Amino acid sequence: MALPQTQWTLADFLTWEDAQPDRHEFHRGEVFAMVGARRTHGRVVLNLGRRLAEQLDGTPCQVFTEGMKVQIAEDTVFYPDVFVTCDKADLVTDMVFRAPTLVIEVLSPGTQSYDRSQKFAIYRRLPSLKEYILVDPDTRRVEGFRRGADDLWVLHDMSQDAAMQAPSVGCSVPLVQIFQGMVPDADADT
Fold first, then answer.
1. Has this prediction a pTM greater than 0.85?
2. 6-18 tens-digit pLDDT
3. DSSP letter assigned to residue 91
4. Integer CA distances (angstroms), 172 to 66, 107, 127, 166, 167, in order
5. Is residue 102 within 8 Å of 168, Cβ to Cβ?
6. Strand 24-27 relative to strand 96-97, pairing
7. What CATH topology corresponds to 37-178?
8. Could you give the CA distance from residue 97 to residue 89 in angstroms, rounded to a whole number?
């Protein structure tokens, strides 16, 4: 849902958003409130963040999750569910990242169409972005788009594979680990 005030500048948005208790995305001067996520969404984000962070220890890359802003251009700021950056300037910023190599969005019924189309088109504006992966907790589908040397994006459906491959950052996460904890144990305490 867009907030009533429109045509904000990036500086206006960043100043205002810093003081808000909830997160908002910014695109072309408009501010959009972000809705809360379901348990399955949060579980997948946590699993991905943890597994990627383990593999990236000791490398010049770091993984971040949903609470961090990525600036796409002067008119757009998103909160990716998971992203990896290897950019030196990004690794010392406190608030706004600008050069992710990998972005992962965990789909929900309400955002799936947007994440697959318009949001992906916007992310492609980032020259640093080499890979965009979509993870659907409901269907257990994992689809990755990789930028080729010719600057064209190629779909890699990993839904039937044993692992999600993220060659842009040299990582591989078994699908069973991505979806771990999705269905609580029958004997677990409630």
1. no
2. 577 777 777 777 7
3. G
4. 20, 20, 23, 6, 8
5. yes
6. unpaired
7. tt1808, chain A (3.90.1570)
8. 8
